[in-house]
Sequence to fold (128 residues):
Amino acid sequence: MNKEKLSYPLDVTTKEALKEIARGIPNLLKLFYRLLCDDRTPREIKWWIGGSALYLLLPVNLKFRNFKRFPLQIINYIDDIVLVFTMVQRIFKGTPDELLEEHWDHDISLTDWRNLLFKLKTDIKNFI
Fold:
């Protein structure tokens, strides 16, 4: 399994990267479904996909009763974003490249889409 090193910065703005990533989300969901159905997918990756989907579907969020107007409510969204980034990274690292490429169905390559994710993650880290 040959994983390439992602490059930064890419020659796109954060807004453009976010737009292209959003366009690829339906394809990412198809990819995850196809990986779940494929017998060649490692069991650990199937657990990551299923566990992450369950977490995102459960309506459990942190409650800040004393801080209703305080901006700590943003934590409810940040933890979901962090989980999604972690999940996608873990799935991409643990799945054979051939399997990812076989099930990827988008007009931009998986490598380019992954580079956009990396750019967005780096931009968010630099912002925080």
In short: Residues 1-7 have pLDDT under 50 and may be disordered.
